[in-house]
Write a structure and sequence with these properties.
It is a single chain. Helix 3 (140-150) crosses helix 4 and helix 3 runs parallel beside helix 6. The protein contains six helices and eight strands, in the order αβαααββββββαβα. It is of the alpha+beta class. It starts with a helix and ends with a helix. The relative contact order is 0.10. An eight-stranded antiparallel barrel has the order 1-2-3-4-5-6-7-8. It has helices spanning 2-107, 131-135, 140-150, 155-166, 250-254, 270-279; strands spanning 125-129, 170-176, 179-184, 187-202, 208-216, 226-230, 242-247, 262-265. Helix content is 53%, strand content 21%.
């Protein structure tokens, strides 16, 4: 009986011991799994957050660069357009002002301060008188144009007026360096001329003109002592045509306003000259 009781006690103690070992094993395994779970979650969370932040940062940087580029392009284009428009407006305005000034000068309206001296080289070339084209009728279209444009005189009255103005028997003039050659009635005479200044004249109509005067270096038979150019220009520039006055009395020439022989380049034909005249 005592033996059975002792064996029962031993079995009971062994049962309690076994139960305790199983409980302890379950707790250790649960703790390990929990730790791994937390570590995995933190690792995943950290990776996602980091990846998300980098992606967001990368996207924002890309957007920032894109916006910056667009702004730069816009500002550059705007500045370019503005500068282009400004320069265009400025150049157009400047060109327009220049045209108005040139037109005013051509018509004889200018300030004394605008006038500059000129050299004989401005008229260098081979020149022909336009008077023969008036005589043969080539310039009739010019007079018709003037009559229609102004209405001040008829075409025939204009022709009579210009017949007095253009009349000359010096059909050609050649200017090379300081040498001027007159071709008159089949004869030619050459001589050297030097600048003798200029004179500003005021006409009855209120407009003005500049006579650029040159004096022969020495007296040559058949040549005028003075020649005076008038080409509607008042500063150094190559002339495209001119009116010429010549004679031996400087002062008397300045008073001549009815006869102004006119010369255009000799390589122009009559119709080209007529169209050039109508353009003015």
């Amino acid at each position: 009986m005592k033996l059975k009781l002792g064996i029962g006690v031993i079995l009971a103690v062994m049962g309690l011991w076994l139960t305790g070992c199983q409980s302890a094993g379950s707790n250790d395994s649960g703790a390990l799994n929990q730790t791994e779970a937390v570590s995995g979650t933190n690792g995943s969370s950290s990776t996602q957050e980091s990846s998300g932040t980098q992606e967001s940062s990368s996207t924002n940087e890309s957007n920032t660069n894109h916006v910056h580029d667009e702004e730069d392009d816009h500002n550059h284009n705007h500045d370019h357009d503005h500068d282009h428009e400004h320069n265009h407006d400025h150049n157009h305005g400047h060109h327009h002002d220049h045209d108005e000034e040139a037109e005013a000068i051509y018509k004889g309206f200018f300030e004394d301060s605008q006038v500059q001296n000129r050299t004989l080289s401005d008229w260098e070339g081979d020149w022909q008188s336009v008077y023969p084209y008036l005589l043969d009728g080539t310039l009739d279209e010019v007079f018709a144009h003037k009559a229609e444009d102004s209405g001040k005189m008829t075409a025939e009255e204009y022709k009579e007026y210009y017949d007095v103005g253009y009349k000359t028997d010096t059909e050609r003039i050649v200017i090379e360096g300081d040498t001027v050659t007159f071709f008159t009635k089949g004869q030619q005479h050459s001589g050297k001329y030097q600048s003798d200044g200029y004179e500003i004249l005021t006409y009855e109509a209120g407009n003005r003109g500049v006579r650029y005067i040159f004096k022969s270096v020495e007296e040559v038979e058949g040549l005028p002592r003075y020649i005076q150019f008038s080409d509607h220009r008042i500063n150094p520039s190559k002339s495209d045509h001119f009116h010429l006055y010549w004679g031996d009395d400087r002062k008397a020439l300045l008073e001549e306003v009815t006869n102004w022989p006119t010369y255009y380049p000799s390589d122009m034909d009559g119709h080209s000259i007529a169209h050039e005249m109508m353009a003015h």
